[in-house]
Structures are given as structure tokens and as C-alpha cells.
Specification:
- The chain has a single domain, classed as Aminopeptidase (3-Layer(aba) Sandwich), CATH 3.40.630.30.
- The chain has six helices and seven strands.
- It has helices at 13-21, 23-29, 35-47, 76-83, 109-124, 140-148, and strands at residues 3-7, 53-59, 62-71, 93-99, 130-136, 152-158, 169-176.
- A seven-stranded mixed sheet has the order 1-2-3-4-5-7-6.
- The longest helix is centred in the middle third of the chain and has 16 residues, at 109-124.
- It holds the Pfam family Acetyltransf_8.
- This is Lysine N-acyltransferase MbtK.
């Protein structure tokens, strides 16, 4: 499996609609899928007018999932939710993700997507010291994928769930930038 990423464009909205309507996605993402809702939720990033990124995950060129990535500083309310539970280092990035095709769920694709986007994050955000991810506690499949990708649970507590049927209890995961052994600064 060779995973790459490219920005979501408006031409991808029909694909996003299909994915968001899949029961395994709809349960946790809880997004409306009307044209207006897709424009509201993905239009700004597709047009480059909002911070953050919506990225299609591609397996050998075939779209298989979605990753949202942003700097926490760009979303103060969300950053504050994290900060109420754990340390949020300056420059921290957060991600969210979904596997679109139900036939590919439970086969390691989510973990592979997380690993690949984190590796890409270290390149794309050279000053990011860590990636933080909040997962509703009931979504065991998601937090287990994070653990398999090397994240460690650093906190738990209430955050606003995407789906109002969920309890506010979230687990917060963190992965720090690996030490490359490079010495910086003057010596």
C-alpha cells in the first residue's frame, strides 16, 4: 500500500457525500450531506479561504479516505478544549480521519493513513512539535488505530462530541515529533 495525500477540491464533494452517508462514517462524523452542508464544511478549505486542510488519502492513486489537518492555534475554541485536559505545545497540529469504503474498514487502512499523514505533517509543518488527537471514548476502533500508529493517551475528559448522542468523554492522544538527532542553533 502506497498512501499519498492531495487537497480536496469541489469536484470531490460527491465522493465525500457518499462516504459521509456510509453508516460506519455517519455514526462518528455526524455531518449533513446536502450540497449546502458540504459547501459549508469543506468549501472554505477547498477554496483556500479557511485555515486547515481537507486531504484525500489515496492508495496507489485511488481515494480511500479523508484526513482533516489543522494547527490548533487556528481554531482557538478547539485548542482551549484540549488545553483544559492537557498541555498544548505551541505549533501543535491535530488530525481527524475516516476510511471511506466500508469494505476496507478493519484491515489496517486507518492506522496506515494516520502513520502516513503524521509523516507528511512533520515535513509540511517543520515547527510542529506534536500531533494531538481527541477521540470520543466510545469510538474504540479510532483510538486503537491511533495507538497502533504510535500515539499515546495523555488525557481524558469532557469535550464537545461531533455526534450529540455521544457522551462528552474523550481520550486525548499525542505523538511527539521524533528526535532526528540534528543539532540546531549555534554552538
Amino acid at each position: 500500500m502506497t498512501l499519498t495525500f492531495r487537497p480536496v477540491t469541489r469536484a470531490d464533494f460527491a465522493l465525500l457525500r457518499r462516504w459521509l452517508e456510509q453508516p460506519h462514517v455517519a455514526r462518528w462524523w455526524n455531518h449533513a450531506t446536502t450540497s449546502e452542508a458540504l459547501d459549508r464544511d469543506f468549501g472554505g478549505t477547498a477554496d483556500g479561504t479557511e485555515p486547515g486542510e481537507d486531504l484525500l488519502a489515496l492508495d496507489d492513486g485511488e481515494p480511500v479516505g479523508l484526513v482533516q489537518r489543522s494547527r490548533l492555534v487556528d481554531f482557538a475554541d478547539y485548542r482551549d478544549e484540549f488545553a483544559a485536559l492537557t498541555d498544548v505545545p505551541d505549533g501543535a497540529v491535530t488530525i481527524d480521519y475516516l476510511v471511506g469504503d466500508p469494505g476496507r474498514v478493519g484491515r489496517g487502512l486507518g492506522t496506515a493513513m494516520i502513520r502516513a499523514v503524521v509523516a507528511d505533517t512533520w515535513r509540511a509543518y517543520p515547527r510542529a512539535p506534536a500531533v494531538l488527537v481527541a477521540v470520543v471514548a466510545a469510538n474504540a476502533r479510532s483510538w486503537r488505530a491511533l495507538e497502533r500508529a504510535g500515539f499515546r493517551r495523555v488525557a481524558e475528559g469532557p469535550m464537545n462530541p461531533d455526534n450529540p448522542v455521544d457522551d462528552p468523554l474523550h481520550y486525548v492522544y499525542r505523538l511527539d515529533r521524533p528526535d532526528t538527532g540534528t543539532v540546531t542553533g549555534s554552538g
